[in-house]
Amino acid sequence: MTERLESREKVTGAARYAFEYPVENVAYAAAVQASVGRGEVLSVDIEAAQRLPGVLAVLSHENAPRVDSEPDGELALFQSRTVSYRGQFVAAVIGETLETAREAARLVRVEYAAEDPDVRLRTDHPGLYKPDKVNPVFPADTELGEPEAAFTDSAVRVDVTYTTPAEHNNPMEPHTTLALWDKDGSLLLYDSTQGASSVQSTIAKVFGLDPTQVRVIAPHVGGGFGSKGSPRPNVVLAAMGARVTGRPVKFAVPRQQMFATTGYRTPTVQRFRLGADPDGRLNAILHDVFEQTSTVREFAEQTATPTRTMYQAPNRRTSHRLVALDVPTPSWMRAPGETPGMYALESVMDELAVVTGVDPVELRVRNDTDREPESGLPFSSRNLVACLQEGADRFGWAGRDPAPGVRREGRRLVGTGVAASTYPAYMQPGRAIARAEPDGTFTVRIAAADIGTGARTALTLIAAETLKEDIDRVTVEIGDSAFPRASVAGGSSGTASWGTAVVRACESLRGRLNGEVPPEGLEASADTSAEVKNRDEYARHAFGAQFAEVEVDADTAEICVRRMLGVFAVGRVLNPMTARSQFIGGMTMGIGMALMEESVMDGEFGDYLNRDLAQYHVPSCADVRDVDAFWVEESDPHLNPMGSKGIGEIGIVGAAAAVGNAVHHATGVRVRDLPITPARLL
Ligand code: MOS
User: Fold this and answer.
1) What kind and span of H or E run contains 148?
2) pLDDT of residue 145
3) Looking at the domain assignment, is residue 486 inside a domain?
4) Among 175, 221, 266, 334, which is best to mutate for testing ligand 1, by the most ligand atoms less than 8 A from CB?
5) Spans in the chain with pLDDT lower than 50
6) C-alpha of residue 333 to centroid of ligand 1, in Å
7) What is the predicted pLDDT for the residue at 514?
8) Is the interface score ipTM higher than 0.95?
9) Between the N and C ends of the chain, which has fewer C-beta atoms within 10 Å?
10) Ligand 1 geometric centre to CA of 196 (Å)
C-alpha cells in the first residue's frame, strides 16, 4: 500500500495546476458562445467591448490567425462564419483581468442568419448512416450465423430497447491553458490534459509548427474522465490570444461553457434481442445501436463492442448507426462504448434471467466462454466466473428470492442486482529515460499524465522494483512533453503502456550499471514500439462483477443505493490503495449514471440546458454509502512485464446495470431509460 506520492503537495496547495503558474504580465481570455443552433455569423460588433478599459483584443472569424482545421474541426476556432451548434465559440476577448475579459465578452454583439437546428437523436432519422469504423478501429457491424432466424426460432425471446442520455464528464478542474509564445516562434503551454505528447503534436499541426517548437507542461491534472484526452478549444484560444496580444494568456473554460465545448458522452438508443433455450443458454444475440455525432467531426462511440466479447452464442449481430446533428461533437467519457453498451447488455441479461427463472449469476456463468466469441481468439485470461462467484459470496447472494417487488421494510422496497463488467487491456507504444545520478538516486522521465489516478505512484513502484531500489531513491517525472513521448492517459492503458517503457528503460540502465556512477550520471532509454507491435494474438480484457442493494421509497420512489460491491480480475494490482480508489470511483460514477446524470437537450434552442453541478447531478457523499471493491488473484503472462490490466474504467462498466437490476428486483418496475428517476419509476 503506497500513498499517492504527491498527496501532501495536493492537500497543501503546493501542486500547481495549469491556471496557477505565476507568470509576469499575464492576460486573460473569455469566450463568446453562439446563441443560435445552426447558421452563419453575419457580423460581429466589437465596439462596445473595445471601449472597455483593459481590453487588449477581440477575436472572431474576421481577424483571428489562420489555423489548420485538419487535425480536429473543433479546434478550428474562428476560421469561418459557420455555426455548427449552439454554444460554439464564435468570438473571444483578451483582457488585463478576468473580470474585464468576461464583461467585454458580454458586450460583443453577434448577428446571425439562423436556421432551425436538428438536435434530436431518433431511430427513424433520415440522416442515419453506417460509419466506416467505430472507435478507434472496430468494424461498425458484425454478424455470425443466422441471427434473425435463430432469434425467431428461440424458445425464449427478449426484445427490448434501452436508452442512455448524453452525459458530461465534468472533471473538477475545468479545461485550462496558459499559453506563452517565445520570440523564436515556439509555444509553451501549461495545459490541463491527459496527454502532453498528443497536445504537443496536435497543436503543432494546428498552428503549422514543428512539434519541437511546442512544449506542453501538465504535471498535475484535476480529473478528465476522457474529456482531456485530446486538446480542446481552450488550448487554441489561449494560444491565439497570446499570439495576437504578445502576452501570456490564461483561459479556463467556465463550468457553464464546458457543456458545449469540452466533450460529452453521446446519447444512445440500443435495441437488444436475446434468443435462448429455456435453461438460459443463449442462441442469438442482436445488438443494434443508434447514436449521434456532429457536423464538425465524426465521433463513433463503440457501444456494441463489449457484446462481441461477453457471452457465447452461435448466432449474433452487432451494428452501429450514426447521425450527424447540429450538436457539439461527442467524445470520450470513462469507458466509452463499454459503459452504455454494458449497461444495456447487462440489463437485458437480467430480463432474460427473470423470463427463464435462471438465477442472474448462474445465467452469466452458463453463457461464459473461453474464446472471444466474435474474434475466435483465446482470452489471455478471463476470470469473469471467479469474480461472479467471489462477489456472490462476499455480497451474500445465496438464497436470494428472485421475486420482484415483494421485500418491504417499512415504507421501503428492497432489492438486489448483479451485472458483469469488462474492459479491454490496451497497450500503446512509448518511450522512457532512466538515469542513475551520481548521488545514488535514480530519475525516470516520461511524458505520462496523472489525472488523479495514482499513475505517478504506480510508475515509481514499477521503476523501483525493476531497479531493485528503495522507492525513496527513485523519482519519476511526468507531465512534460519535453520528456520521452508517451501515449495519453486513456483507454485504461496508461500504466500498462508507460510502465512497460519504464521497465525497459530501467532494465537497460541496470544492465549498464557496474560500479561507480560517473559524475555526469548514467542514462538509458527504451522505446516499446516493437514490443507493442509484436505481441501474440490474444483477446485481452479485464472482467468484473458488480452487486448492488437498493431501497426504494414506496410512496415517493426515492432510490437509495444501500451498498455496492465489485470484484474485478485485472491482472496484477500494482498499488492496492490507488487501485481500490479507481474501482470505487468508477462504481460511484456508475451510481450517478444509473440515478442522476442526464444532459437535457433543449429541442427548441438546440443545446444542453445543464450549466453547472446544481443542474447536472452527480452522487454526493450522502448517495455513496457502502461501496467496496475487491479483486481476484490473476496471473496473466500475455500482458506486459508488470502483468497488469487497466483499472481506470472497468469500475463504471456494468455499475449502472447492477443498480437498475436491483431497482427492478425491489419494485418490479423495469425502467429502460436512464437515469432511473422517481418520475420514471412511479
Ligand atoms: Mo478514458 S474515457 O479512455 O480517458
Assistant:
1) helix 147-153
2) 98
3) yes
4) 334
5) none
6) 6
7) 86
8) yes
9) N
10) 15
Give the three cell numbers for residue 321: 448507426
The whole-angstrom separation of Cα 538 and Cα 378 is 6
Give the ligand 1 atom nearest the CA of 648.
1
Are the C-beta atoms of residues 467 and 513 closer than 8 Å to each other? Answer: no
Is 558 part of the annotated catalytic residue set?
A: no
**pLDDT tens, position by position, 47-77:** 999 999 999 999 999 999 999 999 999 999 9
Domain assignment of residue 604, yes or no? no
| Closest atom of ligand 1 to CA, residue 451 | 4
E strand map for 4-146:
27-33, 39-45, 55-60, 82-83, 89-95, 109-114, 133-134, 138-139, 142-144
Are the C-beta atoms of 123 and 292 separated by less than 8 Å? no
Count structural domains, the chain.
1
The answer to whether residue 475 is domain-embedded is: yes
Amino acid found at 51:
R
Closest ligand 1 atom to Cα of 169: 2
Kindly state the DSSP code that residue 652 receives in the 8-state scheme. T
Cis before 404 (ω within 30): no
Task: Examine residue 637 and say whether the peptide bond preceding it is cis (omega within 30 degrees of 0).
Answer: no
Q: pLDDT, tens digit, for every residue of 428-441? A: 999 999 999 999 99
d(CA 525, CA 446): 10
Residue 506, domain member (yes or no): yes
Spatial CB neighbours of 178, under 8 Å, sequence gap ≥ 6: 18, 19, 21, 23, 26, 189, 190, 191, 238, 248, 249, 250
Cα dihedral 239, 241, 245, 248, rounded to 10, equals -50
Helix (H, G, I), strand (E, B) or coil at 188: strand
Q: What is the pLDDT of residue 515?
A: 82
- Which residues 6+ apart lie within 8 Å of 209 measured at CB? 185, 186, 187, 203
Least Cα distance to 244 among 181, 306, 173, 320 occurs for 181
Helix and strand numbers, DSSP H then E, in the chain: 16, 26
pLDDT recorded at residue 205: 98
CATH number of the domain where residue 448 is located: 3.30.365.10
User: How far is Cα 377 from Cα 290, in angstroms, rounded to an integer?
Assistant: 28
Q: 151 CB less than 6 Å from ligand 1?
A: no
Question: Ligand 1, atom 4: nearest CA belongs to which residue?
Answer: 226
pLDDT of residue 516: 86
Instruction: For residue 446, give its domain range.
Output: 431-533
Asked if residue 312 lies in contact with residue 282, where contact means CB atoms within 8 angstroms, the answer is: yes
Query: How far apart are the C-alpha atoms of 276 and 284, rounded to whole Å?
Result: 7
